[in-house]
Amino acid sequence: MRQGIHPAYGPVVFRDRAANYTFLTRSTMTSEKTVEWEDGNIYPVVDVEISNVSHPFYTGTARVLDTAGRVERFERRYGKKG
């Protein structure tokens, strides 16, 4: 890799504020805020809106849309063309 053109890649703590969940990973994201992690080191922390802990798809609370029912209801209401 060429030197000087890539962002710094290092450990970062991501914090899901909705679920009160934090995890340590490596990323190119940076932040002015820092947090002391369980190992005693201080890492930059990035607040995120949603993660796998609070996302409805991963938690099993996702709603399935009935698209076939919507099409049939539309055809009943406005009549089927053709």
Give the overall pLDDT as a whole number. 82
Number of strands: 4
Radius of gyration: 22 Å
Bin the helical content: 10-25%
Which strands sit side by side, in order, in the main sheet? 2-1-4-3
Share of residues in strands? 25-35%
Q: How would you classify the helix and strand content by structural class? A: alpha+beta
| Biggest sheet details | 4 strands, mixed
Low-confidence stretches: none
Task: Please work out how many helical segments DSSP would assign.
Answer: 2
Task: Give an overview in words.
By secondary structure, this protein is an alpha+beta fold. The protein contains 2 helices and 4 strands. The chain has a 4-stranded mixed sheet, with no helix packed on it. It is elongated.
Structure in a nutshell:
This protein is an alpha+beta fold and 82 residues long.
List the helices and strands and how they pair.
Layout: E1 10-16, E2 21-27, E3 34-36, E4 42-48, H1 56-59, H2 67-78
Parallel strand pairs: 1-4
Antiparallel strand pairs: 1-2, 3-4
Overview features:
four-stranded mixed β-sheet, 20% helix, alpha+beta
